[in-house]
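name: query_chain
kind: protein
chains: 1
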Amino acid sequence: MRVAAVQLNSTADPSANLASADRLTRAAAADGAKLIVLPEKWTAIGSDEQQRDAAETLEGPAITWARAIARELEVDLVAGSILERVAGHEKLANTSVHVDPQGEVRASYRKLHMFDVEVAGRSYRESDIEEPGEEIVTSETADGVQLGLSICYDLRFPELYRILAVRGARIIAVPAAFTLATTRDHWETLLRARAIENQAFIVAANQVGAHPAGHRSGGRSMIVDPWGLILAQASDREGHVLAELDLERQLEIRAQLPSLANRRPAAYRWGEEVHA
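structure:
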């Protein structure tokens, strides 16, 4: 299976961002990709006010475009993530959508972990305008390969990825807008660790460069195999990277080094003593 990670430099202008996503998605498909992953918040990055203004429902322009282009190009498309307006909720959801080659939405996932941290002297408070999802989500590509969904900061929570793998995920998508500092110091290590631990392919599409409101993303979008080898890595500009996923080799790795099969869930106590 040939897959692609698309790297964008999104602004606060949804129309311009959609045009860039369209151009690079078409380029990836022209290079033979059958599964394409876009980055986090590909429709808009900026101030809280700008991101609120750009938010939309899953029936809005972004996912309407995603459904149309996936059908036109006959690809599976993980439409990164968008800020979703949810009926009855004041705050937004950070939502990733998997669209199949028929243009049908196969799955949607709302980011579980809010990026409320301090990095390189800057405070980030996603929870000011976003609320976390509550459900772990897997999907399936048109070829029947199990696909796990995650978003950006989720990468620091290995339990999520283990659950995705135990539920059958062989490929895990990681749309991201990793900060410049954390991309340089942690991005590769975390991606390779999640791939090795779960013997899964990781397709990680990152934002790159300067964005409005002082945001900076680190690029280096990456595709990693179940042995932790980097199959493709992007440079520090917009574009896409491609890799062939050897699914048979993945089965060999899981058979020869059966760490998933050797798990002992009954011994992994998660009770009051852990929280004390």
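note: The helical segments are 14-30, 48-54, 61-73, 158-166, 180-198, 247-256, 272-275.
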